[in-house]
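Final report, Chapter 2: Outcomes

The project's central promise was a pipeline that accepts a single protein chain and returns its three-dimensional structure in a standardized token representation, suitable for archiving and comparison. That pipeline is now operational. To close this chapter, we reproduce one record exactly as it appears in the project archive, with the input sequence first and the structure output second.
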Amino acid sequence: MPLPRGTIRDLLMRPVIALVGRPNVGKSTLFNRLTRTRDALVANYPGLTRDRQYGVLRHHGDSAIVIDTGGMGEETDGPGAAMHEQAGAAIAEADTVILIVDGQTGVSSGDEEIVAQLRGRGCAVHVAVNKSEGLDKNLVCADFHSLGIAAVHAISALRGRGVDDLIDAVFRDVYARRSQPHKAPEQAGVNGLDEGDDQVAAPRGAVSVAVVGRPNVGKSTLINRLLGEERVVVYDQPGTTRDSITIPFECAGQLYHLIDTAGVRRRARVDEQVEKLSVIKSLEAIDRANVVLLVSDAREGITEQDAHLAGHVLEAGRALVLVINKWDGLELDQRLKVKRDLDRRFAFLEFARRHFVSALHGSGVGLLLESVDLAYAAANRDLPTPELNEALHKAIAGHQPPLSRGRRIKPRYAHQGGHNPPRIVIHGNQVQRLPAAYGRYLERFFREEFQLQGTPVRIEYRASDNPFADKPNPLSERQQRRRQRVIRHAKRSKKRKRR
């Protein structure tokens, strides 16, 4: 994968370590331990990881890029073939390969097949015998020397046993090949890890874009088309993508972080524990994204689940671009029906741009990033207070707020309270009693006035304090009762006159 230039160009100089092995031997567990993240989905389920997952390892003052891969050596048809291609691409990029094997099952034919594929690749190979807790270190390693690889290490990715020794050996090997000095362990922090940030920091100005939708609507195909390479596994089967994969890339000088997510089905249809974890990570991706691309299938139409997902994006306050995929080959009456369904089901998303594309053939895909840029700029726009107050007074002059309990609601001034989404705080008398319909009117007015296309707008109300709230009422109880009778009599008189 070509890493973006600019602020993360230094990543290109770091060693690349690929984690390979059969399914369910603990590659993702080791990846999470090395990167000190929970980016890789982990469960006792073979074949869970299918795409390449990148992270940064920091150890003893050194750093390296770590690649988690899908299982090799078994399934070679369907999604398995694409998983093998992804693992092969990771091996081609790597300076060092860590072959992870299962110490509790011993050497298998799958391990031997992977070793045969690694021979002649020109990269160093280390064997990590995982799940060795409770076993003798020398005995568990002796069996795997038959693979013909000298560097064999007993580890426990779950508990961390032997992991530091493994990474020390990997770095010594890398620097010996590069003829560069290896940094001393005493430069490291506690437990051989740096005290600084443990994750890849998003470069300043990078736009995080989450691609979400129902299963099999073409999310991974769309990402591959945007990147111009087969970066994620694509197969004509729902649920091919199981984890959320973050992919950095650059286009026209702008950095993006594309997040490929698992398809989200209705809760009643989600029965497997793995799929539940995938859905949770997809929803988390929405929360941490700057802009969301909501992908729908034009051939299946706009469904209730699409509207459900759109509602979650709106609730999270994320900028949004609607992508209607598989638009090619549709008849005119089908296209008109899809557009009518969009107007009906997505009436609450009038601020979002719509794109009718074919991710498979690339038609319409080139305009998506332009809408992403506009939505991101709108979500982070600064709204000057004088202009906000001028717009508020203009909105009130065009449509006065309704009365509340016979008293006028008086919005007085406004200021910006936050970004992504833009948050406008309105102060005044009884503004908390403004009806929801008038709030929607103000939201539309501010959006049109400041051209906030592609992002929701949040409006908060803060009522002015009553200066007499803490002071005792100077009227006696008898006078207060009489005043209440007069008020009720006046209200009844007004009703009679209306009749």
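Archive annotation: DSSP finds 13 helices and 15 strands in the chain.
This record, like all others produced under the grant, will remain available to the consortium after the project formally closes.
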